[in-house]
Amino acid sequence: MKQPVQSKIGKRVALIAAAGVAGVTLFSAVAGGTQQEVATAQRAAQSFVATDKGCLATFDHSMRALHSKDNHNLCELTENRVVMVVNTASKCGYTGQFEGLEELYQTYKDEDFVILGFPSDSFRQEHNDEEETATVCFVNFGVTFPMMATTPVKGDEANAIFKALTQATEQAPGWNFHKYIVSADGKQVTSFPSKIEPMDKSITNVIDKYLSESAE
């Protein structure tokens, strides 16, 4: 007899809970199932601890805003907040997810949640001209969450944020619109592949959980 899916998942979660005591727990959700991984404190702690500025070390950076000379202070944007990090592209089959991302942001932005968007040509589906990228984001889809200038998100050239998230989760973006959600205390990171829509219950459940835990 096949073991029920819920039973299998329950056992996996129990294993994660036991292993997570000694380190940082990371969940990696994939289409068609759920994978869990545990990153040890030794491997992830340096990037996912709070700095004396109040934000996680992962986000202690200033990055240029999309199609602008101004910079986004990621430390200020993320301090004491649950954070979603997503790599975007303007010429991708998933570009329509901007609509869902904006809906997600509007739903949670007043509850200590923020989305950081990172346009990238790592998968050869972003405009060379940032003005065109900005038009897709801000005009076509009405994006209001912070968008960074175009940068690589995988490999040795990846920006500092994606390097830290890839090191912690051992999961680099496999395509555009890969999503990471980081708990406010940096102890948990959930990774979702491109197929998972922004307003999917699996994503909102994690956000609700992290917000609830940060309020305790």
From TrEMBL:
Classification via PANTHER family: GLUTATHIONE PEROXIDASE
Pfam families on file: GSHPx (PF00255)
Any one Gene Ontology molecular-function term assigned to this protein's record: peroxidase activity
Family: Belongs to the glutathione peroxidase family.
Keyword Cytoplasm: no
Protein name in the entry: Glutathione peroxidase
GO BP terms in the entry: cellular response to oxidative stress
Gene3D superfamilies, alphabetized: Glutaredoxin
UniProt keyword terms in alphabetical order: Oxidoreductase, Peroxidase, Signal
Signal peptide positions on this chain: 1-31
Recorded superkingdom: Bacteria
